[in-house]
Amino acid sequence: MQFIHREQVEQILSSATCLQLSREAFTLMSRGKVKQTLRSVIASEQGSLMGTMPAYIEDGPYAGFGLKTVRVDFNHHNQSTSHEGCILLYDATDEGDIVLVDAASVTELRTAAASALATDLLAHQNASHLAILGTGVQARKHVQMIMAVRAITYISVWGRSRAGAAQFAAWCQHYSGLPVTVAETPAQAIAQADIICTVTAAKAPFLRASDLPARCHINAVGASAPGFQEVAPDIYTAVNLYLDSREAVWNASSCLLKAKQQGLLLQDASGTEIGTLLTSGDRPDLPVSQRTLFKSVGLAVQDLVFARAIVAGSRSAMNNTLK
């Protein structure tokens, strides 16, 4: 059994590769080439979660069975990341080996890549002000991935911890070389933003419709399990809604369920899956003043596509070394 660790994952996958893999994963799903169940989640009394996500891809270079299992600890004081786990791939090589791939690094990359793909499809072509709400690993990955699809010229950040926000802002400035400001409130951070990413583990909404600028694209990715909430239900009355999976989001997003309970959304009719934009070949014809929101909770097909590409890259690197 082979294990591919974080350092190998990050060496193999560039931002451009992650974007292409994200595109291929959502295209497979939209074309009905994937069988996957909803995420199964168990919560501990201390508040940590364990999730399992099995899937099967029917054909092509990513074909086969796989299973992601991950533990999420929101009090990860002694860890570098809140996520730990593995992606188990059956028949991942010509020899039929079972391969384990580090799940934390894949989760970080595929989540940010999905947001970047949605941004590329939905954000205005001249969008240049990026607002990041949250200061963890996903915040950093989102800066990296969004800068790969838009010519960002300014970054504003907000975090619940002022010290954490200042540290993240310093990283942003070092990484990007751009002007970066730390906002006192979420509303202040997004006031002039074209692209907004919410990447927190908040359990109460901190962003409302009245906070939104006239034109923006939002990637709402932090609240990916029941009980977590970043945006208020009224935001969904002010945006065009896009989803990674209608079934998955409506089963995991407390915010959307609350919006439905309040009569603001109809479950069966709300939200366009991002994969349909890829298979149709058309970008939505949105007016200049339009707001869009991409809500994602993460799908097993993303993990399997990324993991199988990592295995292929690892084998290729090994073969080149042996030559």
Automatic annotation (TrEMBL):
Superkingdom of origin organism: Bacteria
InterPro entries noted in UniProt: NAD(P)-bd_dom_sf, ODC_Mu_crystall, ODC_N
The protein's name: Ornithine cyclodeaminase family protein
Upper taxonomic lineage: Bacteria, Pseudomonadati, Pseudomonadota, Gammaproteobacteria, Enterobacterales
